[in-house]
Every structure is written in C-alpha cells, then in structure tokens.
Amino acid sequence: xxxxxxxxxxxxxxxxxxxxxxxxxxxxxxxxxxxxxxxxxxxxxxxxxxxxxxxxxxxxxxxxxxxxxxxxxxxxxxx
Length: 79
Hints:
α1 (2-9) crosses α2 (11-29), α2 (11-29) packs parallel to α4 and α3 packs antiparallel against α4. This protein starts with a helix and ends with a helix. It is mainly alpha-helical. The model has no long low-confidence stretch (mean pLDDT 92). The chain contains 4 helices and no strands.
C-alpha cells in the first residue's frame, strides 16, 4: 500500500509506526476492550491510507493522533 511504502521510505514515519505498535500493545495490556480496539484500528488503517495519499506529513500526523488515542486508553484507570 502507499502507506506501507511511505513507512519504509521515511525515517520519521517508520519511527511513528514502531511507536504505534508499542502504544497498541500498551492499550491491550492495560485492558482496553480488544474487539473495540481492533475495530478502531481497522478504521484507522483506512484513514492512514487516505493520509498517505495526501503527503508523508499527513501520514505522520495520522500516526501521532492514533498514538495519542492509544496512549490515552492505556492511561485510563480500570473500570
């Protein structure tokens, strides 16, 4: 995909991709609902492709926003 090619070609986006993986794992470990997390991630992957079509900067922004969302989920106290 265009997003995957950009991840491979752009050092900053590649770093964001690694950070996203860690944030996702943190959210899972913190007990975020797995099914909702998975559905949100699928939606985000579609948005990631749209951002990649616009520019590497837009793709990096999409990563930062998703990382922030996942970190917020990980930092929420258990219900």
